[in-house]
Each structure stands twice: as C-alpha cells, then as structure tokens.
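Final paragraph of the annual report: two paired records, presented back to back.
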Amino acid sequence: MANAAVVTPIGIPVSGHMFRTAAVSVTGGASAQNLPLSIPLTIAAILALALTALLARLMRSRFRRGIVPIAVIAFALAWALLDLRWTANLGRQVAVALDRYGGKDTAERALAAEDGELAAFVDKAKALLPPDPQRVLVLAQAHYFRGRASWHLLPHRVAWEPVRDVAPEPGMLRAGDYVPVWRRPGAQFDAANGRVRFDNGVELPAKALLVDRGSALFEIR
C-alpha cells in the first residue's frame, strides 16, 4: 500500500460474522501446574497400600490388625501434604499481590494489573465511541487480551475470536464498525487515502481515531 503511515496490530474473524452483546469471562492468574500434586500423591498412596496388602498376605503374623490403620495413616499424610502445598501457594500469591498492588490507589492498581496497559488503552478508545452500543471487533495476538479487551468494552456489541489470531474475513466489517487493535503487527493504515489494509489482503476505507504505542482504534467508513 502506498504511503503507509501507521503499522499496527490486527487480526480476527468471528464465525458467522456475528456481533452480539455478551458477558465475557476470562480466567487468569498463575500458570497451571503441569502435574498437580494430588495426582502423584494419590498414585503413591495406592502403590503403598498395594505393597502393604502384599506384605500382609506374606507376613500375616506382623499385620494382625490388617492394613486399615496403615491406610488411614497414608491418607492423613497425603492430606497433610496437600494442605501444606495449598498453604505455600496461598502465601506466594499473597506476596505477589502485595508486591504488585501494595500502597497503590485504585488507578495505580488497575494499571499494575496484568491487563493494566490494555485497560488504559481501551478506556481511551471507549471515550471516542458513541455512548450507545456499537459493533466492535477486537484484534490482538493473544486470546487473553482479546477477551479482556472485550470485557472492558462492554456494553458495546463486541466480537472477538477466542481461538485463532486471524484478520477479519471479507465482508465481515461494514461502515460504522469500530476495530480496536492491541499490539498486533499485520495492519497498515494509509493516512493519505484513509484506508486500512489487513494482513489477509482485506482493505477497507477507515479513519484512525486513536494511535497509541503500537495499538490503534479504527472506524470503518
């Protein structure tokens, strides 16, 4: 595209070209464990009980009370280890939260959050949108940021791709739609001719309402 003035993020088609107002719920926090502690503990307890049962069968004189007391002890130890792990995780999360949010006011806490910079950008974008609900297509590389941006944009009629990072399909956008783009390379804006081109070749007349540190808000004309 000639005279390409702004290179910004972009990408996402929504199946069926649907724009609906909907609640968005995005889970976040610490990364999930690859193997939760409860699984190896359970396996170890089962193996210990199986070994104890075998020994009790071979050495009955030493296991006159059976394996029930041993099973109770194994269960209690496993439970105690899980409690210790939970307590340690809770302490770590509290320490991280205090380090991130301690001593900050509401605005500073919002900015310190994982999506703080995104929320600040969306606040600027929302201030440029009409007050009544508009059709909005959110574009970002990570599904987490697409989902969070959609949440912050409510009550507008927000569409976003929950799985794929792709550009809008031909015919998906129409005049009057808004496209916030959060730090996703792949779109070029031709300021001289007032057109935006996505990385899949789709090109539309548009106006850049906001350009902010690698992010942008476009209004389709």
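The closing record of the year follows.
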Amino acid sequence: MRGREWGQEEPEARDVDPIDSEGEPVPPGTEPPASDAAGTSAPPADSIPVAKERLAELEKKAEERDKFLEELQRRVADFDNYRKRMIRERESWQFSGLERFLRAFVPILDDLRRALTSASEGGQDPAKVFEGLLVIEAQIEKVLSEFGVTRIPAQGERFDPSVHEAVAVRELEDVPDGTIVEEFRQGYRFRDAVLRPPQVMVARNPDGAARTDGTEEGSEDA
C-alpha cells in the first residue's frame, strides 16, 4: 500500500448507512432507538412509587398471614390440650364412680357371706335366714339406686315394648288387654337407659283390644 503523498488532501469522510443484523442496509428514519438496540429500557419514573406501594402491601399481607397462622397453631394446641384434659377427667370420673360403687357393695357381699355361712351350719331358724336375705336385698337395691340404677315396674303395668320383654301371653277375661300379669325376671334401667328389660307375661282379653304388639303366645292356660 502506498502512503499518502505530501500535500495530498485527506479524503472526505462519508456517512455510512447502518446495517441490520443480517447485513442489509437500514433505510433512513427506521433505525431503532439506542435503548432498544441495547436490549434494555428504563422503567417510567412514575412506576417506581407504585411498585414500592405494592411491595409494602405484599409485606403487610405476609405479616398478617404469619400472625394468622401463629394464632391458628396456638388455638389448635389449646384445643388438643383441652381434649386430652377432658379424656383424663372422664377416666378419673369413671374410676372414681366405680371405686365408690365397689366400696358400697363390698360390705353387702360380706353380709351375704355371713348369712350363707350361718344357714349352712344348721340349726338356724329358716324365717330368720330369710329375713336376713331380705335385708341384704334391700341393701343392694339401695346402693344401686344411689348410683342411678332403678327397677323397671312390671307387675300390673301396661305392657310397653320399649321397656318390657313379653315371653308369654295368657287369655284372661277379667283383666284389661295388654296388662302384665306376671314377671319372670326383673328389669333395670340406668337413669334413662334400659339396662335389662323385665321378662313378663301379658294378658290378652278376647273381648278387649287387639293383641299387643311384640308378645308371644305361651303355653299357660287361663
């Protein structure tokens, strides 16, 4: 290459048309802005306060959420402790009730054993032995009553299938239909619940109402 000779003017610089990424010239006036060409754009100035406000709202909601979860966990723990305490107290009540019942029943068992021993020795007045057994029976019923166990009335009562168990029927003309005329086994209830229904015989009056539901005809005659 030959150098520029002395006194020779330097060629005038010419504007170079911009080219795109594929090497093609870009028509004048269609050049992308400098920021777009760099691939970045500055956010509008008025959007910065909005973003800060939105961020503050999100932080506040996150704080409220954490407080709510903490309160919920505390309440769940309190309820679990309450449930466990109720279970312990219920077990304690049940054990205490059973203990009181046994303390009241054991002396009666002692009386019954003494009565049986006395009767087995011979020479005892049967009437005295029977009287002693009646006393023991009364003691047992008293203890049961104190704990909410009572006898279900049967003899002479109107048959009630919800509390009585009919095991026999007898036709009687002088007794109202559905009347209990005999009790084979006593029944008991605990408060409002039937522990065991009494087994009974029910009268059926041929001239009375229709046969009582739930009864079974027995072999006894009038």
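Helices lie at 34-38, 47-120, 126-146. This concludes the annual technical report; the extension proposal builds directly on these records.
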